[in-house]
Design brief:
230 residues
């Protein structure tokens, strides 16, 4: 946050997948999300957070971001990745930075396979993550195993943002719509805690996710009055 160095405030944290693509076009796969620029612009509105960009491991990205094993694409190491995030990374971030530790102020976010593992993490670690940003999620992976996983959980509370671009194809849009319905079915406050967005004509790429990032964080993050010291 722009005010981080000059205040004693503590901030919400968003753990984001594909860290290479978030802040710098020179490290990104195909363009950046402009996360730092967006959050700087939102600061005056009281929408502030510390973002922890977790880089993927390149050729092992599918292994990291897949909680289930796909018969064609393999993967299935998502639980090990989340163990690292929850047991190693988060405690270190909380130790080094002025963070809000509570689940209501701790979120996880990603796109495509990163969206899949973020949605899975929200339900796997309900005491850790209180909100999730699920952008263009790869819901098809492992024959759609994530649908049964989410449906198997009881009523939940928190905030989940789900989106998709209509240019990503009808099956992808259909899956996203279905997931939004599944989530609302068991949400404590369906109208307030689930936001579903379709980007008209948007494709499956970084520029599309960058365009929708502001709307996502405005929904997910709690607002902080400028004079409130947490």
């Amino acid at each position: 946050p722009p005010s981080y160095q000059s205040s004693g405030r503590h901030y919400p944290v968003i753990y984001m997948q594909d860290g290479q693509n978030l802040f710098d076009p020179t490290t990104s796969f195909s363009g950046e999300w402009r996360v730092d620029d967006t959050l700087e612009g939102l600061g005056p509105d009281g929408v502030e957070a510390i973002v922890v960009g977790v880089p993927n491991m390149g050729a092992h990205r599918i292994d990291e971001y897949s909680p289930f094993r796909d018969p064609v694409n393999g993967g299935g190491r998502g639980d090990a990745y989340l163990d690292f995030m929850v047991k190693t990374l988060k405690p270190e971030v909380d130790r080094r930075f002025r963070t809000r530790h509570e689940r209501t102020h701790t979120g996880i976010m990603g796109s495509s396979m990163g969206g899949l593992i973020s949605l899975y993490a929200f339900f796997r670690e309900p005491l850790v993550f209180g909100f999730a940003g699920v952008m263009s999620p790869a819901l098809w992976f492992a024959n759609g195993a994530i649908f049964e996983y989410v449906a198997s959980h009881g009523d939940w509370n928190g905030r989940i943002y789900v989106d998709v671009g209509t240019g990503e194809g009808r099956p992808t849009v259909r899956n996203a719509r279905l997931m939004a319905r599944v989530l609302r079915r068991k949400a404590s406050r369906p109208r307030l805690d689930v936001m579903y967005v379709e980007g008209r004509g948007a494709a499956h790429n970084e520029s599309a996710w960058a365009e929708r990032f502001e709307r996502a964080v405005r929904f997910l993050l709690p607002r902080a009055p400028a004079d409130l010291h947490w």
